[in-house]
Amino acid sequence: MGTRLIIDTDPGVDDAFAIALAALSDDVDLLGVTTVFGNVSLEATTRNALRVLQLCGRPDVPVAAGAARPLVHPQPARAGHVHGEDGLSGRSAALPEPERGPEPGGAVKLLVSLLEAADEPVTIAPIGPLTNIALLLAAHPHVKEKIGRIVLMGGGVGRGNSTATAEFNIWSDPEAARRVLVEEDVPCVMVPLDLTHRCAVSTAWLGKLAAGGRIGAALEALTPDYLASYRRSLGWDGIVLHDAVAVAEAISPGILRTESYPVDVDCTFGPGRGTTLVDRRRAGMRGEGEGAVAPSAVQVAVDTDVDGLGEFVLGRLTR
What we know:
One of its GO terms (cellular component) is cytosol. By secondary structure, the protein is of the alpha/beta class. It contains 13 helices and twelve strands.
């Protein structure tokens, strides 16, 4: 078996694609899925995760519900206007009813049990707000040695989507994001908006997905609200598979090219709240001595073979 993977998620259309990408990949041991508030309510994200796994024939994968709100301050807004009020363009109920419910005890309990039981490093792919991961690392630091790396979708280098500079997942809980990205020493790969937008797929790609089999057709059917939203922001008919880009890197390390940068997260209450501050200056320009920026373990994804990545995702979803 290949990559041992746990996905932390707030489905969300792109989350549904990402979960399916992992669930359908033969070289992935999908240990579990944990859910978090984000695009829609925790109740809806949990239901959606269970239904996507059932669609993929993977009711064996345990699901546990996690944080229903941010660590400290209320979530500013959800994203029903992008994903539909149920998170899946109003079509969640069209997916099969799950055979099993969420695990008792919640997300952090499941994360701890899966990591403690692991005999090889585990990759965690958080593709929603980072609240569950911050709670895990704060309350159970002994499990860090079991985490190979954290591959997260979030942040931006030169752009935002919830504000001019802040990306939705980070903006939803900046304090949690700062705990994970800045205050911990677990290796992190940050997959930002700048790259995921370059990996947008067209309606022709979606047509191939729909023609590729039962699961692909069901996933494509979840996209109308998402497509309408991205038609406005992209200026052409396509969607951005943000979370699937991150999960592709989690599955196939190196499919994205990364560069190491110091990263901080703006937790103030000004217009920059939730912004990921990526210091792209050369090391010699970052200052020395007291007040200098310490070297960061954050690998920021900056490039990929866009066409190759699209074929990678499409091939796995239609296998």
